[in-house]
Specification:
The chain is an alpha+beta fold. It is built from four helices and three strands, in the order αβααββα. Strands 1-3-2 form a three-stranded antiparallel beta sheet. Strand 2 and strand 3 (about 65-70) form a beta hairpin. The mean pLDDT is about 85.
Length: about 90
């Protein structure tokens, strides 16, 4: 049985995965601003547990520290897509 928290986390995890697969970076602020996701680090952790190699770097901007996440080019190229552009 799946509770509402599990289904929400799965949806958020897929949203972050889809974002990263575009080749874009993402930060906590981006995740909140674009998708209203407040637990980016947890979603990244889940994707890493599932086998994705997600890179990250701590940066400082305006005296604030935060992580930036992205996929390396080889990770992007290793994703198998079907003819519709969806991951197979």
């Amino acid at each position: 049985m799946t509770n509402s928290n599990q289904s929400t986390a799965k949806t958020q995890t897929q949203t972050i995965k889809d974002h990263l697969l575009t080749g874009a970076t993402i930060t906590t602020w981006d995740a909140y601003r674009l998708y209203r996701i407040t637990c980016l680090a947890q979603r990244v952790h889940e994707l890493r547990k599932a086998g994705m190699t997600i890179q990250s770097e701590m940066v400082t901007h305006n005296e604030k520290r935060f992580s930036v996440y992205w996929l390396d080019e080889h990770e992007l190229l290793s994703v198998d897509f079907n003819n519709d552009g969806e991951e197979a």
